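INFO  loader      accepted 1 record
INFO  loader      residues=238
INFO  predictor   begin
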Amino acid sequence: MNGFPRFIAVGELALLVEFGDRIDNQLNARVLALAAALNGTTGVSEIIPTYRSLTVVFDPLTVTCIELCERVTLLLNQLPATHSARRRWRVPVCYGGEYGEDLPALAQGHGLSPEQVIDIHSSARYRVYMVGFMPGFAYLGGLPELLHTPRRSSPRAMTPASSINIGGQQTAISSVAGPSGWHLIGRTPWRSFDPLRQRPFLFQAGDEVGFMPITPAEFARLSDKCRAADWYPEPEVA
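INFO  predictor   done
INFO  writer      dumping tokens
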């Protein structure tokens, strides 16, 4: 398949396995399947999935890069073609207004009303393709084609933490405040990253995510709940 999958040594401590060169649901399914198959492998200390590749960090005193390549080659022939999420989230989102200031313009650009955008966006099911860019920032695949939107021509200098955004063919859940060229359509009271929590990160690559519209009053109530040190949203486990 055009030279894929291919192995690339990343220094002396990591192996990069590339499955392709595009954002693709099936490629990502193979990435996640290999990550699951390598979990617990002797000598492997960290596994980092992306859209279309997997970085495997290893201890060269325990396993060599050649041995790891041989192990991965055997596993590649056994990988399932599809991915079934083990964790499913229903993320509450307050759309529009002060929580999603780009929603009206995005809707107008597609010939839709803001309410139609909310309905389309919250009716879909998404997969966390990868977590990166900022701590806990979740890139989601599965955005309906009706909502595919080029990124902003002028990036915003600061986007609030926990924003729900659209950029290109993806939607995303931001984690911490920072600059962004994505379109801000809403915000969740959940914090996808909190370094003070026992489990700092909320989402993992491979999780299934759905969105549930809420009112500003519900947002305020849930925000208070999320600030409690002993409260942590839990996914549905398949």
